[in-house]
Design goal:
Number of strands: 0
Radius of gyration: 17 Å
Shape: flat
Distance between the termini: 33 Å
Order of helices and strands: HH
Largest sheet: none
Strand content: under 5%
Structural class: mainly alpha
Helix content: over 70%
Low-confidence stretches: none
């Protein structure tokens, strides 16, 4: 399966444009910071769960 990176980036960019259209610079900064925090939380949860999965499989 081929990854359509350009298409994916365009969709994300267009979605963010629609969500931030009409926002002030300060509001745009807040938007990006909120997205960043959400991503970081998701990555931390993902790292913990994969570490837990590895620990469980090595115990078997």
């Amino acid at each position: 399966m081929a990854v359509k990176a350009v298409e994916m980036v365009r969709k994300i960019r267009d979605k963010h444009f629609d969500e931030t259209n009409g926002l002030s610079v300060e509001e745009q900064i807040k938007f990006i910071k909120q997205k960043s925090k959400k991503l970081q939380k998701g990555l931390k949860i993902g790292q913990h769960s994969s570490a837990d999965n590895r620990a469980q499989t090595t115990k078997v």
